[in-house]
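>> received
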Amino acid sequence: QPHLRIESRILPAGPTILDEVANTALFYGLMVGLEESYGDVTERLRFSQAKENFLASAHYGLNASYAWLDGQRITARELLRSHLIPAARRGLASVKVPAEDIDRYLGIIESRVESGQTGASWLMEGLSQVPQSARPELCRRAVHKMLEQEQGTDPVHRWAPLISDGESEMEDRLTLGDIMSTDVFTLAPEDLVDLATSMMEWQHFRHVPVEDERGRLIGLLSTRHLLRLRNSIGKQESATAVREIMNEAPLTAATDMTVAEGMERMLTTDNGCILVVHGEHLVGIVTERDMLRVAHRELTRPVANE
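>> returned
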């Protein structure tokens, strides 16, 4: 059967609650005020032009250029300033939305238009300043930042840049949660060392966390433990359980520990990895190799001209 599907994507476009409410105010104000201001826009704007505008928005955001009524061309910012925001104000006022609410929420839209910073541009600007290899870590950091600020008092147009020009800000604030591996192979304490050795050789692992039946972290098995076992007298590797040789007190840390702090702990305790935990449960692992990647990126970073 023929059907009509209508999607409203104003809320997921945040990234803060304030921005979501501001987006909603603009949307519903236009639903009420657009026809009153411009009549039936479908008679003055072809569907093909609306499609073109939609694609331009997806590609260029506030820097887009639109087809407007009666064959006009207009930039996204000018369209919002001169036409859409005033029409939304009239629409909201006509359904008796308090003036202070109109000013507050549409004022956020106006400030966003002036600054040119949306959630998307904030992220893309940060990504443009780091090499391809650093982008996954930067994306994780961006998600953390969004979660921190989504219920705050600063809309996205006021957010500080994700990366500051000429600074190693990313490295200074990089946390273990940003660089850890979350797809972690684990062992059970009753697993035989023979099996563990085969799996570690196959996957090229040097460190494997050990979890109990409830998923709690209880130890770490490393190649160092395997070498000690092989060199010991009277031990049969194939008949030895992981619990007998594992480290029952491995180096652990929370996700918010900085990489610099984690590196210092690894160096001072002579550990080859940090197990990143939340309470009693493992959430990731940071190895010497992960630390080397961060150090290499910092050492090869271009020096900004003074």
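>> The CA atoms of residues 266 and 272 lie 7 Å apart.
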